Amino acid sequence: MIQVQSPGMFTTVQDLGRFGYGPLGVSPSGAADPIALRLGNLIVGNPQSAAALEMTILGGTFVFPEGGVVALAGSDFGPTVDGAAVRTWAAIEIRPGQTLRTGPTRSGARCYLCVAGGIEVKLLLGSASTHILTGLGGFEGRPLKKGDVLVTGKPFNQPRAVPRSILEKLQPRKTLRATVGAQTGWFSTASVARFYESAYIVTEDSNRMGLRLQGAELETPHSGQMTSEGVSLGAIQVPAGGQPIILFVEQQTTGGYPKIANIISADMPSIGQLRPRDEVRFEFVTPEIARNLIREQEALMGQVCGT
Predict the structure, then answer these.
(1) Mean local confidence (pLDDT), 146-166
(2) Number of C-alpha atoms within 13 angstroms, CB side, residue 253?
(3) Are the C-beta atoms of 119 and 150 separated by less than 8 Å?
(4) Which end of the chain is more exposed for a tag (fewer CB within 10 A), N or C?
């Protein structure tokens, strides 16, 4: 088990999410950086989809009464075990009664605490992920708090190492690649060019539902309004005011703002590591390039799995 001594700023139970329920109004949720979650699980011998703890900006303090094997994947939160520094991206054996502490981030936005055996919580629509907006899934449908006790499962396989060369190729990007959006053709050529030429800042008013950006103002067609329709994960809406919004893992499943672009699947994990005040740019790619990039990413993951 894991005893939560301090939960950190915003720590939730997440796996790879629940897909296929968009028509019912249920967004996927799941890890904001699924590549980090998958790699962390592989390091401790878990299936890639096992539930773990997602920590945001500031990590927590956790006691392991019975010990265990863990890995910290994603951003560097300066982890220590009983005061001694430990590595990220590596299996760490924790003896019974030891305490794992993680502090403020030294790099990106999120760090994943993966435990051999995974975190055991009741599944909702086939997923252990916490959906904050509805208070469903995860551990009582909420972020962790002091005094919570989490149950872990039995270890699956032996820990494994991830080659540094693969970690370098999979590291998050600050230039996000995008394809055309559902309403790209509604925007003027000048607005589309301005979008791809400009740098944007992630605002404080960003969360797992979406990232609000501040930067070059875009001319919005129809005053930024349209009949609501289904929206995809990673869609970039431009409401009245001309400041883009990236729809993220707890997005609304319908929206009434025109969409100028859509982040490609291979770069969705990078969004999960963006912090407020980070600068981000966009690069246009064709659907064919987008498909090749996700194939390349999965091929790298296959190398870790030995497939």
Answers:
(1) 94
(2) 12
(3) yes
(4) C
- Strands in 15-90 per DSSP E: 52-56, 61-64, 68-74, 80-81, 84-85
Retrieve residue 266's tokens: 């291979």
Checking if the pLDDT of 21 tops 70, the result is yes
Q: Exposed, middle or buried, 97 (CB in 10 Å: 0-12/13-18/19+)? A: exposed
Place of tokens 């403020």: 104
Q: Is the pLDDT of residue 116 over 80?
A: yes
Contact assessment for residue 79 and residue 59, using Cβ atoms and an 8 Å cutoff:
yes
Q: Which two tokens stand for residue 254?
A: 């319908």
- 71-108 pLDDT tens trace: 999 999 999 999 999 999 999 999 999 999 999 999 99
CB 157 within 8 A of CB 45: yes
Mean per-residue pLDDT, 154-180? 95
Q: What is the pTM of this model?
A: 0.95
Burial class, 264, CB count within 10 angstroms (exposed 0-12 / middle 13-18 / buried 19+): buried
**CATH fold for domain 175-305:** Cyclophilin (2.40.100)
Per-residue DSSP letters for 32-50?
Answer: SSHHHHHHHHHHTT--TT-
Q: Start-end ranges of CATH 2.40.100.10 in the chain?
A: 175-305
Which residue type is seen at 127?
Answer: S
